[in-house]
Automatic annotation (TrEMBL):
Keywords for this protein: Lyase, Signal
Stored Gene3D superfamilies: 2.60.120.200, Chondroitin AC/alginate lyase, Immunoglobulins
Classification via Pfam families: Alginate_lyase, Laminin_G_3
Residue stretches spanning the membrane: none
Domain Alginate lyase stretches: 56-259
InterPro entries documented for this protein: Alginate_lyase_dom (IPR008397), Chondroitin_lyas (IPR008929), ConA-like_dom_sf (IPR013320), FN3_dom (IPR003961), FN3_sf (IPR036116), Ig-like_fold (IPR013783)
Annotated protein name in UniProt: Alginate lyase domain-containing protein
CDD domains: FN3
Example of a GO cellular component annotation carried by this entry: periplasmic space
GO molecular function: lyase activity
């Protein structure tokens, strides 16, 4: 930053001018510390006084870091010291958790800049660390642990996200790897709506990742992008690539929110794909137009990481960054601001190549999605019948969205796909190859001699990236307890696919959900599974048609199944005879010959398995 500003290079200079021209970044201000910060619709609410001083401390620290003018450092230290020697608690209604999360991570970032300043006495720095550990961290931890005494899905994504960001920042500032790891672990495995898989509620073809709050309003969506972006950047600076988690899932969310709030060439907002969101707050059946077009200065960090660090195209995030440039003050305290100054990077000197290609069988087609690369003008899809080629072009001139449905399939075909970008200097290198077999393939077979008592734990991630599928298993029930599982593949109650011997209605049921059961899609049979004998059960999905078989005979169907195993992410708890829900009983009986296939076996094949 300092070098770019000294060279008067753009857009760094405009970002610097936005900082130096902002009222909160000036000398002469005095801190207004409080013993008690209150946020929420309660008497005495005063949190604005706090976030204004947090912003002043950060902006003064940033001015010092770029200019090396110690007057700004000295004043930043005054703000940090006054608050750390005065503040005793953050309180209010449930909004106290927002205050502790948002302003907690922001204050920690201001202090992190200043920790190398010789003028900040070690004892004063230690007192600031103690304040963060004793006042902010307990509230952050409490929220992620018990969600204010409610169910995990009771709060929208941004509540989790601000608490995670604060915990991560405190872990860094206080040299506490245990606290830092707590935040990373929650991002990957947390059960609340702000963890990585839940915050991006559903990824549409072409990697448009519908945000968890997209059915609520757009202001909270952009808030979530800002919080998640801060989290990813802090983790990146510690050597952890959360940006890339689950095939750049955060970028998918950022592109969706960015595009939702941009207008197309006709002046209308883009038409967006939308998957109905059902959660503790109810059902959001359509994209919310509340505050659509919302502008927030949080896009530079996202765009510059993916495009200018990695060479991944960010078409809609880039447009948002351009229209907000230079990013200014965080306004009402929701973000630190000034990202044009702090995050802009020079573009990579050469074009990259497409990446992240997935190819998933859905009925009679293979659905391909990929990440584009900077410098690309269009993309072509190439297919071969053996690994490594030779490839033939099956589609070209693709610009947006980056997805293609291959319908020219043989029933026994095995296909290998790559994507190549057309750039100004010629074709790019190909993407990594993705393989699909149209005929079902056995991915896992578990077959103990004579069956095994349950529960049994199966390998992690056994269903990852599978769309159409078959699960086949034999079960011998001593009893058919309500909600006892034949199998349950998932990662806690947040995401699972399961088969229960008897649901609340008394019949066998297959179900799949990505939100604690609130959006469960399922197939009901006609009765509970029989006891006292071996029963063969199978579930298949072909396109949107789900079929449940009992003893080789169709026992139930659902032609509107949208969710697939690929939507579950990395399932870490894959069970036979045990549920993700702790209140459900374990299966009483034995299981045998569990088979998991990519692709849907036909009725004749299922009947043959049942008789084998």
């Amino acid at each position: 930053m300092r070098q770019k500003v000294q060279e008067q290079a753009q857009p760094w200079l405009s970002g610097w001018n936005a900082l130096t021209g902002n009222g909160r970044a000036q000398l002469g201000a005095k801190p207004r510390p409080l013993a008690t910060v209150i946020r929420g619709d309660v008497p005495g609410q005063n949190f604005a006084q706090f976030y204004i001083d947090v912003a002043r401390a950060y902006q003064l620290a940033l001015r010092w870091k770029v200019s090396q003018d110690t007057r700004y450092a000295d004043l930043a230290v005054v703000f940090l010291n006054e608050w750390s020697s005065t503040l005793k608690e953050v309180t209010g209604n449930a909004d106290r958790f927002l205050a502790a999360g948002i302003y907690g991570y922001e204050f920690a970032n201001a202090a992190e800049i200043m920790r190398t300043y010789p003028g900040w006495a070690p004892a004063d720095f230690a007192r600031f660390q103690t304040m963060m550990l004793d006042i902010f961290y307990p509230l952050n931890n409490q929220f992620l642990t018990i969600h204010n005494g409610t169910q995990y899905s009771s709060y929208w994504a941004n509540w989790d996200q601000c608490s995670m960001a604060s915990i991560l920042a405190i872990g860094v500032l206080c040299d506490r790897p245990d606290i830092y790891d707590e935040a990373i672990s929650y991002y990957k495995a947390g059960q609340g709506n702000g963890a990585g898989l839940q915050a991006v509620y559903y990824v549409h073809p072409g990697y448009l990742g519908q945000w968890q709050e997209s059915g609520r309003d757009q202001g909270h969506c952009t808030l979530g992008i800002g919080l998640a972006g801060a989290f990813c950047e802090m983790a990146w600076n510690q050597g952890d690539d959360i940006y890339g988690y689950e095939n750049n899932r955060f970028l998918a969310g950022a592109e969706y929110v960015a595009k939702t709030n941009l207008r197309d060439g006709t002046g209308a907002f883009y038409t967006m794909p939308y998957f109905t969101n059902v959660n503790k707050q109810g059902k959001q059946a359509e994209l919310s137009t509340g505050a659509q077009g919302h502008r927030r200065g949080i896009w530079e960090s996202v765009h510059n990481h993916y495009a200018n660090r990695l060479g991944i195209a960010t078409p809609y995030t880039a447009l948002q960054a351009i229209q907000m440039r230079p990013e200014g003050d965080g306004g009402k305290g929701d973000e630190l601001g000034f990202g044009t100054l702090t995050f802009t990077r020079d573009p990579l000197p050469t074009a990259g190549r497409p990446s992240g290609l997935t190819a998933r069988l859905r009925g009679t087609q293979v659905v391909l999605s990929w990440w584009g690369c900077t410098g690309a003008q269009s993309y072509s899809v190439r297919r071969a019948e053996r690994a490594g080629g030779p490839y033939s072009v099956i589609a070209s001139g693709i610009t947006d969205a980056l997805t293609f449905n291959d319908t020219a399939l043989s029933a026994t075909g095995v296909y290998h796909y790559v994507i190549i970008a057309a750039t100004a200097s010629g074709d790019s290198a190909p993407s990594s190859e993705a393989r699909v077999s149209v005929a079902p393939e056995l991915l896992l077979q578990w077959k103990p001699d004579g069956g095994a008592r349950t529960p049994v734990r199966l390998p992690t991630g056994l269903a990852k990236n599978t769309a159409d599928f078959t699960v086949s298993v034999r079960v011998f029930l001593d009893s058919a307890a309500t909600w006892a599982r034949v199998f349950d593949f998932g990662s806690g109650t947040r995401r699972y696919m399961m088969l229960t011997v008897r649901n609340g209605g008394g019949v066998v049921r297959y179900g799949i959900s990505t939100v604690h059961g609130f959006n469960e899609e399922g197939i009901d049979g006609t009765s509970a599974l029989a006891t006292g004998r071996w029963v063969h059960v199978a579930v298949t999905l072909s396109g949107t048609l789900g079929t449940l078989y009992v003893d080789g005979v169709v026992d139930g169907t659902n032609a509107q199944m949208t969710l697939t195993p690929a939507d579950l992410g990395e399932t870490t708890q894959n069970w036979l005879g045990h549920s993700q829900f702790p209140q459900d009983p374990d299966l009483q009986g034995r299981v045998d010959d569990l088979r998991f296939y990519s692709g849907a076996l036909g009725a004749t094949e299922i009947a043959a398995l049942a008789k084998a």
